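Input set for joint prediction.
Command: fold jointly, output tokens.
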Amino acid sequence: MFRLAEYVPYLLNRAGARIAGSFSAELAAHGISLQAWRVLAALLDATALRMGDLGRLTSIDVSTLTRIVDGMEAQGLVKRRRGPDDARSVWVEPSARGRALGRRIVPEALRYESIALEGFSADEAAQLRSLLVRVFANMDRLGGVRARPRRKAG
Amino acid sequence: MFRLAEYVPYLLNRAGARIAGSFSAELAAHGISLQAWRVLAALLDATALRMGDLGRLTSIDVSTLTRIVDGMEAQGLVKRRRGPDDARSVWVEPSARGRALGRRIVPEALRYESIALEGFSADEAAQLRSLLVRVFANMDRLGGVRARPRRKAG
DNA sequence: TATTGTTATACTCTATAACTATA
DNA sequence: TATAGTTATAGAGTATAACAATA
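tokens >
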């Protein structure tokens, strides 16, 4: 007997999709997508990050990230810069406006987390967080974000 | 300071997406999508379910579900039937082939769950499951799967 | 020859709206 | 007028492949 309602991958996927959809709708008021918000969030602690690292941090494929950063650059939220050491790499840097927007969204994001964790004790919340980090690491080993042998197989 | 790597909605969404993507690729060998598998899984315990209930059980919007069931019907995995009591409702019933395929996939699905939970004790796994069920319920209250005032707003 | 990022494309998922037929 | 399901469509998100520039 198989119970979908107790199956961890299903619960992860559906809970994740639900909260993402709902938060996306709220972010629309700020004129950015959920993915753009993740980019901003990743940049809040850093002065600048390379596209590749940004992709790993946000779990966004670089090819997708390119277009997201295109949009954010057009909005004046980030700036691209070529690295002096390695001219292939591109550094993404938040603008003052980008930083300000990111910081303004943080409390809203935290409110969403507290909706997801409504009725949880502090202990339970911490427990869930640490269990999720471990699941995430397990899934990370499985592949994902493209392990790049990008050449055609044949 | 905001740490994306410890933010529950992010972890949920990314872990969920990762495992879904990976499992989808494996399901392709059986000729069905992840969503179709969920439909099969939901039907394994039932003789038949209405479209609406099926949508709620699998968290798939009915409009999406229609097309998924179209495909499954063409593959001979399920059969649609009109309800005698209420001629508006449509009952979806798994075929023998559909049931067999569903049952064949169950162990693979469980293997994926155990990949996600690698290194977890039985206690920790149970804990995560129950915490996720609660998160899922919290998100459910938030809206989702369309609360239908489907009429145009203006 | 390998790596970084970009572009193009195709496929899935999701959300919305308008429609049919029943109730 | 409300409900069950269908159809059409548009928007994200994701993955793949081919490419340019650089190492």
